[in-house]
Amino acid sequence: MRFENTIYLWLLTIIPFMVALMAWGEWRRRKMLRRLGDKKLIKALLPGASARRRWIKFILLQMALATVIIMLARPQMGTKVSNEKRNGIEAIICLDISNSMLAEDVAPSRLQKSKMLVENMVEKFSNDKIGLVVFAGDAFVQLPITSDYVSAKMFLHNIEPSLIQTQGTDIAAAINLASNSFTQQKNIGKAIIVITDGEDHEGGAKEAAKAARDKGYRVFILGIGNTAGAPIPQGDGSYMVDNTGNTVMTALNEQMCREVAAAGSGTYIHVDNTYAAQERLNSEIAKMQQGEMESVVYSEYNEQFQVFGILAIFLLIVEVLVSEVMNPWFGKFKIFKKRI
Asked: Where are the beta strands (DSSP E) in the chain?
């Protein structure tokens, strides 16, 4: 069981305070009634009063509140986890998250467009294993190679440049890390897909691509951005400037992207605001050797909030039907003890 909006679960902590407040109110009520006169006389004057009924109504309301909060948290449950034999490839996506990827020469921005592209890639995969590496001035494995596409989408949404403090663009580090992140299975196509604007600040990308090629991997470069250049938004309406106060311009380095792709026996593909890049990449990947591999398959999470919604309605109906005042006809059954 997982919850889509865990913030609502914190609201459940309100219920113990409500219980304490109710207990304090009942104590104050009994104390005030004792001041009015003899206990037996007061019971005779209030024959239908029942503290137990008040508590039952209160508990029903709190249970309904708890189920509504849980419903709003959107509980979800996976329906199936299984091991299956599949024919596919292994692909590790290296996503550039340097500050230059915030440029908006590709709508809505280079980074957001890249994330949309990766999500579309994941949608197309069915029998393959995927991994995710993020890089800027350094590289990190964001998602180890897996067939769990649901987790891949979840990790993707949280990717921002702030994940890596060391800024810059070290494509070589990303390719080397990806090369060491594949499984040991042989006779299966393995692809490294680098999504970047090509502003390589560290060098060594071509050498890393050649090393990956020597291991039998193919390196695809997806260049994103405009060769004319664009400023880098700062998030407050301004643009990044250099030490002299001039606006920093970032441009797609297609020449470098082509050279790295060629060194890695792959293909360079320019990403714009069409689906042409996606279709071309799918075509290239389809040519790679597919091999049988065992995959742990996770099904999509199913929403469970409907059950809690029905339970909340039922509890509210029962609460309405329970009266605070004892019905004289039911009094002879002694279901609720008389107590003020």
From this structure: 2-3, 75-78, 81-88, 90-96, 129-135, 139-146, 190-196, 218-224, 230-231, 249-250, 268-271, 291-298, 301-303
